[in-house]
Specification:
This protein is of the alpha+beta class. The protein contains 3 helices and 4 strands, in the order E-E-H-E-H-E-H. About 10% of the residues are buried.
Amino acid sequence: MERIDFEEGSLYRGDSLEVMEGMEPNSVDLVFGSPPYEDARTYGIGFDLKGQDWVDWMVKVFEASLRVSKGLVAFVVGHGKGARKWSLWASAKIWAWWSAVA
C-alpha cells in the first residue's frame, strides 16, 4: 500500500480490500476507484476474474467502501476501450445487487 499525504487529506493506492480492512468505519470522505474490469482492464496486475467471480469480488469492494466512507462512493466500471471486451452481464449483476441494498 502507498499513502500520500496532502494538507487536505490522504490518498491511498493499493489493494482496496487490504487498505480498507485497516480503516475505521465512516473514516473517509470519498472512496473512488477504477477497478480491474474482467479481462478488459487489468492494469497489468494479472487480474483475471470474470462473470460471477468478478461480481462477487466487486460486491466485497462495494461493501468495504460503504463501511469506511461517510461520503461518496464512486467507481468507474463497465467500459472497455478500443477492441477490448465489455460484459453487460457483470454490469447487470452489480446493478441488481446495488438496487437490492440501496
